[in-house]
Amino acid sequence: MEIVVLPTADDIAKAAADRIEGLLGRRSDAVLGLATGSSPLPLYKELGRRHSEENLSFADAKAFLLDEYVGLDPDHPEAYRNVIRREFVSLVDINEDAVASPSGTADDIAAACKAYEEAIQAAGGVDLQILGIGTDGHIAFNEPASSLASRTRITTLTEQTREDNARFFDSVDDVPMHVVTQGLGTILEAREIILIATGENKAEAVAQLAEGPVSAFWPGTVLQNHQHITVFADEAAGSQLKLRDYYDHMYRNRPQQ
Ligand code: GLP
């Protein structure tokens, strides 16, 4: 696990955008895994800037979203499909039809989840997955107690996550209780993962993710089992890391090959 603490969210956005630009340089038809939440927004803005000012192109790329609320009207502005259209798709030249998201309105949600897994496989799997992390350590919507081998499924949000996400709705009562999410097992199959965490309220989740025992109680800890993961944290989110000096040392002295 590479843990990189940078001063600001903008520094993280640039470093993460460099990875994505590097991937698209090697494979213009890369498959991206997109996360919602506020943490990746500066990254999406930076990718949009590189697209308009530096010709970075997503024209051949495909993308899969991590998760979706169940039961929200498909036109609801906070349905993740619409959030990602607004915050990423509209800023770059990715084909809208090449951006898939789990269905939170299907009549048969279990069948839709299975089809979603199959679609990821058919696309060749995710090359680079962008993640945020919840204050309770959830990734995508895999809440504490999620099976570390879980697949795409419907699940129930903790009250803490509903309260955290109430800022996007009129009140906490409007935050759906159920969601469809890629599982932890699904996410682990991405070839590369970038997790972005900013702000003091993520400090405990980041410390657990990097330094805690692997446990369903802190679902993000499952990422310790991934071969190619980078955690980008700002100073506040990295403030509880015990081995911080070592991570800085490692980053300054990264092997050149
Ligand atoms: C949401 C999303 C996650 C996201 C997390 C943190 O519930 N399902 O994918 O990582 O919460 O969100 P934020 O970045 O806004 O703190």
Described by its quaternary structure, the protein is single chain
State the separation between the terminal residues, measured CA to CA.
Answer: 17 Å
Number of helices: 8
Domain unit count: 1
Instruction: Find the CATH topology.
Output: Rossmann fold
Task: Report the order of strands and helices.
Answer: EHEHEEHEHEEHEHEHEH
> On the 0-100 scale, what is the average pLDDT?
97
Q: What small-molecule ligands were found?
A: 2-amino-2-deoxy-6-O-phosphono-alpha-D-glucopyranose
Determine Rg (CA atoms, Å). Answer: 17 Å
Describe the structure using short key phrases.
Rossmann fold; 7-stranded parallel beta sheet; about 260 residues; alpha/beta
What this model shows, in words?
The protein has 257 residues and is an alpha/beta fold. It has a single domain, classed as Rossmann fold (3-Layer(aba) Sandwich), CATH 3.40.50.1360. The protein is built from 8 helices and 10 strands. α1 crosses α2. The longest helix is centred in the first third of the chain and has 18 residues. The model has no long low-confidence stretch (mean pLDDT 97). The chain binds 2-amino-2-deoxy-6-O-phosphono-alpha-D-glucopyranose. 2-amino-2-deoxy-6-O-phosphono-alpha-D-glucopyranose binds next to α5.
